[in-house]
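ERR on first pass: missing label on line 2. Operator R.T. fixed the label and resubmitted. Corrected input:
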Amino acid sequence: MAHYVINGGHRLEGSVTISGAKNAAVAIIPAVILAGESCVVENLPQIEDVRILEQILQHMGANVEFTADGAMRVDPRRINTHTVTFDMVSRLRASYYLLGAMLGRYGHAEIALPGGCSIGQRPIDQHIKGMRALGANVVIERGIVKAHAEKLTGAEIYLDVVSVGATINIMLAAVGASGQTIISNAAKEPHVVDVANFLNMMGASVKGAGTDVIRIQGGRKLHGCTYAIIPDQIEAGTFMIAAAATRGDVVINNVIPTHLEAISAKLMESGAQVIEGDDGREFFIRVSSTGRPRAVNIKTLPYPGFPTDLQQPMMAYLSMAAGNSFIVENIFEDRFNHVAELQRMGANITLNARTAMIEGVEQLSGAPLFATDLRAGAALIVAALAAEGMSSVHNIEYVDRGYEYFEQKLRALGADIRRVE
Ligand code: EPZ
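pass 2 clean. output:
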């Protein structure tokens, strides 16, 4: 298994360009099924989750190829199965988007579900509630969700929890339903809007994405299109935090600053400098810091609140702050597996249910570290970059799922990081 070896204590300096958004990509690729024609998806990140989806679609009979400039062309016309087995989806949680897309297109889907994961149980009851409201018969048998509908009909669906996955999945199925669907208490994350824009580009009518009421006029004939995915908000936030944690000075290119407001606000509150700019071609954010951060408190919330996906890297940063910080994790019940690893680096963190109290220490020290999930991996890398001495970060296959060329990008900023296969 590969791991990273990091010699910490180097300031990150220079510029980095953000890749396409993972959580938009994993929904937009399955959404191509709805078009029934070939689509080209640009600005896709080269990450493991995208490669797995490529393999799943190929296995289903779709034709997937890459253009010279790295865009993915998917032609779903030869898909010859509506079943996706556990072998195919076990490494990809977002496989549930195949359910909404196939139900919307074919009226039938059987998708094996990956189990709970190391950040919590991650139920899909709201996805199922939405599909049932559209008229589908949905059952779970032997770990497989089976959805079938002779006819899907638009409906009004109120989500009991604000769920990114349920909002997108219902949107996908509703595009194939006749009449209007209204999703209330919808998630407002940038990738929800990106998926809606993609569906509209294919000829669908999805209005209100980015607010908490989304209206879908279903049943339109969709066509192929070319679509470029938005930059990854979480990758950008990770580099912003890494810049501040190493007391560096980094220009982060290809970002949408409004997607990063919660992170910018908290970094500034901690004493870092955050400047937003536009170089005439694209937006950038410059993050710099010279001293020890001040303690700040954070509550994770659905967008536009502070994202749960950056809670872990932020905790690594705040472990070195002057004073006590409190972090409340409101989205996932068990997203604290990185804490034990940070403690082995000298961090002083006390957990009480969903709250972490972080008593900042002057300096972390390098240690052998084990990632338990994608963003825990990112947090440990941030901590190791800022710590004094050598760290090894293991289980980096989690990190490969979501960060494109992570070590190359960090090395270009002056980090002493190498991958050992
Ligand atoms: C998406 O997961 C992201 N994944 C996650 O990113 C992210 O952490 C999460 O949204 C929150 O922003 C993708 O987009 C592929 P949710 P998702 O449904 O859709 C509860 C990363 O690191 N819930 O918004 O699965 C759920 O338990 C990953 O990139 C239900 O109760 O998250 C949680 O408490 C990890 N029933 C809350 O809602 C449901 O049917 C929000 O989950 C669905 C969710």
